Amino acid sequence: MDRGDDVIGLAALAGSGGSHLNAGHLSDVKDVADIVGSAVTALAVIVGGSWAYFKFVKGRTYRPRLEVNLFGQWREVDGAQRYHARITVRNIGASVVRLLQRGTGLRVNLLADDQPRPPGRAKWRKAGTFRIFLEHDWIEPGETVSDDLLLDPGMSGPALVMLEARLVWKWSSHSEEIVVLARRMLPADSASIDSQERSAS
Predict the structure, then answer these.
(1) What is the pLDDT of residues 5-57, one digit of tens each?
(2) N- or C-end of the chain: fewer Cβ atoms within 10 A?
(3) Residue ranges of the domains in the chain?
(4) Would you say 130 and 147 are in contact if contact means Cβ atoms under 8 Å apart?
(5) Residue 201, pLDDT score
């Protein structure tokens, strides 16, 4: 073999080594790109999952849920008819709620004297609006509070009553207010409060 053949062999060997070097470099770059891509995808999944959790799951779990019940019964006190009204509120949510007195109250309605000709919807007149839960600032999760009022609607005898409650609450972790409305029609011979007391004992 002469010197020319040696030069050609070395050149060929050098060319072959260079191609292996380039292939190895490209493989490393591809591996790094795959790792970065997987990391970005995983991060996006984590961020998206966290957003969904706080937006839907945690938001719904900790959003206030209040159960309101209205009861009423006519009682004779010193020869006069008085109306015993009771309102109960149970916090069935997982967050503390605070009662705001502004806008909160219980309205008592009686049938109006002038009623439309049948068929028609009964008309009501407001007998009075009363403040409620003056001694309750907040309700803990799972807690039930109640308020009893003895009212003088100005009636000579028992009559049909419509109770309407409006409660304004503040969510402990949010600035928005929650307004809860409840309405119940109670017949003149209603004994729901006594029934409730018997069932609770």
Answers:
(1) 554 444 444 455 545 445 556 666 677 777 777 777 877 777 766 655 555 44
(2) C
(3) 1-62, 63-200
(4) no
(5) 45
User: In this structure, which topology does domain 63-200 adopt according to CATH?
Assistant: Immunoglobulin-like (2.60.40)
Stretches where the chain sits below pLDDT 70 are 1-29, 48-64, 172-174, 192, 194-201
Q: For the chain, report the end-to-end CA distance as a whole number of angstroms.
A: 115
Q: Enumerate long-range contacts of 108-116, CB under 8 Å, 24 or more apart.
A: 108/83, 108/151, 108/153, 108/161, 108/162, 108/163, 109/161, 109/162, 109/163, 109/164, 110/153, 110/155, 110/159, 110/160, 110/161, 110/162, 111/159, 111/160
Q: Please state, in angstroms and rounded to a whole number, the distance separating the CA atoms of residues 119 and 128.
A: 28
Q: What is the DSSP string of 81-93?
A: EEEEEEEEEEE-S
Nearest to 67 by CA among 157, 156, 142: 142
Q: Taking the CA of residue 127 as centre, how many other CA atoms within 13 Å lie in the half-sphere pointing to its CB?
A: 21
The residue among 179, 183, 149, 138 whose CA lies nearest residue 164 is 183
